[in-house]
Design brief:
It is a single chain. The chain is α+β, with helices and mostly antiparallel strands. Among the domains are: about 30 residues; about 150 residues, no CATH class; about 90 residues, no CATH class; about 150 residues, no CATH class; about 45 residues. The protein has 10 helices and 30 strands. The chain has a 30-stranded mixed β-sheet that branches. Helix 8 packs across helix 10. The chain is elongated, with a radius of gyration of 42 Å.
Length: about 675
């Protein structure tokens, strides 16, 4: 028995000795360079691309299995501008062979220098990275195709390593060139460097990476691991710092779990303050939108905890500082084919006017009140919104938009299957409040919106002055407005605007016109006299404006004003499309202020007033024809019939002229 064991050991060690001797001596007696032409021919035949390799091809097996070569060239397919698809200036790898038998990977070095990869798209849409798949013989009709059922992976199954060591990994002087002749785009990543040193399974791996994107630097430095004896399984810590374009610094720290099978991540990201304007400028780009204030978007920072897997992502404890604003945010998103998004945002303050585009300059010769129809406008695709499920809440401490100052904004937004509900919506503004709700539907190609708003106790003067920069009305406002509209541009919205509303102003004044004073001096009341003196105004205890909207035309028939000396009713239209006014005001003189605030009909002279012109420049003027007709009807019965009879035109004209003179005497001069 001992003799048998002895001979087995002798034979075993002899075979090992022969194997080692072969590994040592084979490269010395076999010149691998003589196989270089055959290798080049076989690769060219298999890929359909030109292939060549330098003359310094070397291969050895002891003490390390090593392979080195230089001037590696794999060409592009015919018809592409760039000749080479891949170029490698030099390559050198050294691996111990015997430890591989025991799942012990020992790599002394892996050096790759001067690698250049060219990704090119031709004008006809072909790409140089496509390789023709090998054809496989079709199965005989008589031979049924055998299908193997996938075997479920057992817990802990995988390629477990005993040890893994890598002395040095260096990828230097690399580059990637992206050419798209169809889109006329060119991008280049150059000076690519990746360094790993003293790599093992049981300790963190130091990683250094740097590159230039279109000549702008990008770098990453940090640690990853330990990765454990089951690569791609378990929890892998990482801690990286990233610097991009010498403008932004990003810290990333946390864990990645089971990246090979069911990857999960639990990370904390910290983006140090940077300027988006300077970052985009470094990338050779401008801001995608123009802002009214060129000083905004010059300081942004962000930090948050991010967790997720292949199906869900959540952002918690998120804080973003943008210029003078700070927002706290939490977000949950999942099912990315039909996204489900829930969010909660709390913004302390923001002046949106600084971020909105500057007012459009008026085109020379453009007529006021006319809105140009957009030509060739591309239709918006709302299919993604139809797949979206949304549930979010937002709070804003202070908000400024269109110069209007708003506080304590609260809103809830929910949506599913293309229908989004804004309910409730509340805010404080100008000593009062606003509440409302709305529905935005994109179930059809043309979006539809319905809005319901209620205002209570709002001071109209400061609101209109800030919002419209017009100081023409004062008073406490109560209002209810119900509107519906279709479309996603201003022209379509105006043309399809429908609804109704009710506005009530109390204890206020109309500035710019003195309806009371017109009974004493018509010229002063309507700005016909010389300038000077106190600005005209009409104080009122109540102004009630019920209105309706049909296809962009706002109409009112029962607007009423109650003032100490007059009662006023109004009717007419405001055309939102042409931005023109056409109203007729009919005041009635009150003999005494004793009845201020009452609802009794009081006798007096009716003096119609016309409000015409554009929204930006309304004009008030007395309706002399209306005054004359009303005076004739009340004071001279039967005269109207006479005027409309068969008397000569000269007599009619003289009679009318005398009557108007008589009426105007009552107003004074």
């Amino acid at each position: 028995m001992n003799r048998t064991v002895k001979w087995v050991l002798i034979i075993g060690f002899s075979l090992i000795a022969v194997f080692i001797a072969a590994l040592v001596l084979l490269p010395k007696f076999v010149d691998v360079k003589q196989y270089k032409p055959r290798i080049e021919a076989q690769v060219t035949k298999a890929t359909g691309r030109a292939f060549s390799i330098g003359d310094d091809l070397r291969l050895s097996f002891f003490p390390y299995a090593s392979l080195s070569f230089s001037d590696f060239h794999l060409g592009s397919l015919p018809g592409f501008k760039e000749k080479d698809f891949i170029i490698v200036k030099s390559f050198d790898v050294r691996v111990k062979l015997v430890p591989l038998l025991f799942k012990d990977i020992q790599i002394k070095r892996f050096i790759l220098k001067g690698t250049r990869l060219v990704l090119e798209t031709s004008k006809d849409g072909r790409t140089n990275w496509e390789f023709n798949a090998k054809t496989t013989p079709e199965l005989s009709a008589e031979t049924p195709k055998e299908t193997k059922k996938p075997r479920k992976a057992e817990s802990g199954e995988g390629f477990a390593l005993k040890t893994f060591t890598l002395g040095e990994l260096a990828v230097t002087d690399g580059s990637v060139l992206w050419l798209d002749h169809k889109k006329k785009e060119r991008k280049e990543i150059s000076d690519v460097t990746l360094l790993l040193q003293d790599v093992s399974l049981d300790r963190p791996i130091g990683v250094t990476f740097s590159a230039r994107l279109d000549k702008q630097p990008f770098s990453l430095k940090g640690n990853v691991g330990p990765i454990g004896k089951m690569p791609g399984k378990g929890t892998i810590p990482l801690d990286f710092s990233v610097r991009a374009f010498e403008q932004v610094d990003i810290g990333l720290k946390g864990n990645v779990v089971d990246p090979a099978n069911q990857p999960k991540f639990d990370l904390f990201i910290n983006v140090s303050p940077f300027s988006p304007r300077k970052l985009l400028a470094a990338m050779g780009k401008a801001l995608p939108v123009s802002t009214s204030d060129p000083g905004v978007l010059n300081r942004v920072s962000f930090k948050a905890a991010i967790k997720g897997d292949s199906k869900n992502v959540s952002v918690s404890d998120g804080v973003m500082d943008m210029d003078e604003s700070k927002v706290n945010v939490t977000i949950k998103a999942g099912d990315f084919t039909k996204p489900r998004i829930a969010f909660n945002m709390d913004l302390d303050q923001i002046d949106l006017d600084r971020y909105l585009p500057p007012p459009a300059k008026k085109v020379a010769g453009e007529k006021e009140g006319k809105t140009a129809e957009p030509k060739g406008a591309k239709k918006t695709d709302y299919s993604k919104l139809r797949r979206l499920s949304l549930n979010g809440r937002m709070r804003i401490g202070k908000l400024k938009i269109q110069n209007a100052k708003i506080e304590r904004v609260h809103l809830t937004l929910t949506g599913e299957k293309g229908i989004f509900n804004l309910q409730p919506l509340t805010m404080d503004l100008y000593q009062g409040g606003l509440s409302g709700n709305g529905i935005f539907s994109v179930q059809n190609d043309v979006p539809q919106t319905n809005i319901h708003l209620a205002l209570n106790g709002v001071q109209a003067g400061p609101l209109l002055n800030d919002l419209l920069k017009k100081d023409f009305l004062e008073g406490m406002l109560k209002a209810k407005v119900n509107l519906s509209m279709k479309g996603d541009d201003a022209v379509a919205i105006k043309r399809t605007l429908n609804g109704d509303g009710d506005l009530l102003f109390e204890d206020g004044a109309i500035k710019g016109v003195d309806l009371n004073g017109m009974f004493n001096n018509a010229k002063t009341a309507f700005g016909l006299a010389e300038k000077g003196g106190k600005a005209p105004r009409t104080d009122f205890s109540q102004l009630h404006v019920p209105f309706s909207v049909k296809n962009g035309l706002v109409s009112t028939a029962n607007t009423a004003l109650i003032s100490p000396l007059i009662r006023l009713t109004a009717s007419g239209n405001a055309d939102l499309i042409k931005e023109l006014l056409d109203f007729r005001l009919e005041p009635k003189l009150v003999g005494t202020i004793k009845g201020q605030g009452d609802t009794k009909d009081r006798s007096g002279l009716m003096v119609p007033v016309l409000v015409v012109g554009s929204f930006s420049s309304p004009k008030f003027r007395p309706d002399l024809e209306g005054m004359f007709k009303q005076n004739i009807e009340k004071s001279l019965p039967g005269v109207q019939d006479k005027l409309l009879g068969t008397d000569s035109k000269k007599e009619e004209s003289g009679f009318i002229e005398e009557q108007i003179k008589g009426i105007l005497k009552g107003f004074g001069k």
